[in-house]
Design brief:
Layout: H1 14-27, H2 33-53, E1 55-60, H3 65-68, E2 74-76, H4 78-87, E3 92-96, H5 99-108, E4 113-115, H6 131-140, E5 146-149, H7 154-158, E6 162-164, H8 169-175, E7 180-184, H9 187-196, E8 200-203, H10 216-225, E9 230-233, H11 239-244, E10 247-248, H12 251-259, E11 265-269, H13 272-281, E12 286-288, H14 302-311, H15 320-336
Parallel strand pairs: 1-2, 1-3, 3-4, 5-6, 5-7, 7-8, 9-10, 9-11, 11-12
Helix pairs in contact: 2-14, 4-5, 5-15
This protein binds iron/sulfur cluster (SF4).
Iron/sulfur cluster binds near residues 208, 294 and 297.
């Protein structure tokens, strides 16, 4: 793994220091001063190179605050990032997220250069299923439509009828007007969607290695330790966790819920950095912070983003025939959503 010392950056000049000061004021509760001193020169240099390369940086809600607030032009969940990728005029997209997200950008913007700062930023869900698995399922359940979560490879999307994200999964399933739907690959998201609709779902055994670690017992302990705490959970969590939560939603759904809630103490049952990023937007809420990190998301660092912009690599490529097929499934989702 690359270290900060491998990607050297010039020291900040006084003008850059002054320019970055308001940003630090905003994030000082979630980034200690000693860490900011290391991050700030990278942020300044990345901003300079971004302009030079006509690049746009997309960052998922699970990226660390120095990326999310420091260098990102667009932040959001998978659906939000996919939509923005489709709209951008920039010639280069740097995806601060995991590989399937960069592939989705490439699928929607085949003519653009799409970079991912670390090619090994994978996802346990995306790795749980292959295109061949879907072909077998279609043989077993002829005529049953296939809905695929966006956390999948381009090859898997290409075999699907339509994609979904956790924010639109119920609407997408119901949009097909079918009594049965094959829903892949997250078993827990699938169980949650099944609880919200009359459509019968055929599920796969995939899981997110971050969300499946939470347990209902853990949530009950938070309630004992923090009486009155408001618990929000992502639908990739197991059913006993969702039963214990006060609200279930996608990352963008959780943020929207907070903006409409008068809760004073909150625990977010999702990836660790999400609470840090949201805490900046909601300074009056006290966040209890269990920390389940996604090791794949955390492969993306400022030095790697800088190196990626300097070298315009590693590039994400998708076979054009697969990209065409996959684009149909993603665009169909964007139309419904
Ligand atoms: S948090 Fe889970 S679903 Fe998201 S990238 Fe990491 S392993 Fe995949």
């Amino acid at each position: 793994m690359q270290t900060q010392s491998e990607a050297r950056v010039p020291e900040l000049n006084p003008a850059q220091r002054a320019e970055l000061a308001p940003l630090y004021e905003r994030v000082r509760d979630v980034i200690p001063e000693v860490e900011w001193a290391v991050h700030a020169p990278y942020i300044a240099e990345i901003e300079r190179l971004k302009r030079e390369r006509n690049a746009v940086i997309l960052a998922h809600n699970y990226q660390t605050p120095e990326i999310y607030y420091g260098i990102a032009d667009i932040t959001g969940d998978s659906l939000g990032l996919a939509r923005e990728a489709a709209k951008t005029d920039a010639g280069v997209i740097v995806q601060c997220g995991v590989h399937f997200m960069a592939e989705t950008s490439k699928i929607l913007c085949p003519e653009k250069t799409v970079l991912i700062p670390d090619m090994d930023a994978g996802c346990s869900l995306a790795e749980s299923i292959t295109a061949a698995d879907i072909r077998l399922l279609r043989e077993r359940y002829p005529g049953v439509p296939v809905v695929t979560y966006v956390n999948t490879s381009a090859e898997v999307k290409a075999e699907s009828d339509i994609c979904c994200t956790s924010s639109n999964a119920v609407d997408i399933v119901e949009s097909l007007n079918s009594e049965r739907v094959i829903f892949l690959p997250d078993q827990y998201l699938g169980k949650w969607v099944a609880s919200q609709t009359d459509v019968e779902l055929i599920l796969w055994q995939g899981a997110c290695e971050v969300h499946e670690r939470f347990t209902g017992d853990e949530l009950r302990r938070y309630r004992e330790q923090h009486p009155g705490v408001h618990i929000l959970a992502h639908p990739e969590c197991p059913p006993d966790v969702l039963e214990e939560a006060d609200f279930t939603g996608s990352t963008s759904g959780l943020i929207k819920h907070l903006s409409q809630s008068d809760a004073r103490q909150v625990v977010m049952i999702t990836e660790c950095s999400m609470s840090d990023n949201v805490a900046v937007e909601f300074p009056n809420i006290d966040f209890v912070r269990p920390c389940n990190l996604c090791p794949h998301m955390k492969r993306i660092t400022l030095p790697k983003v800088l190196e990626s912009l300097r070298t315009l690599s590693p590039r994400v490529e998708v076979d054009p025939a697969i990209a065409r097929q996959a684009r149909r499934a993603v665009e169909r989702m964007l139309e419904v959503a």
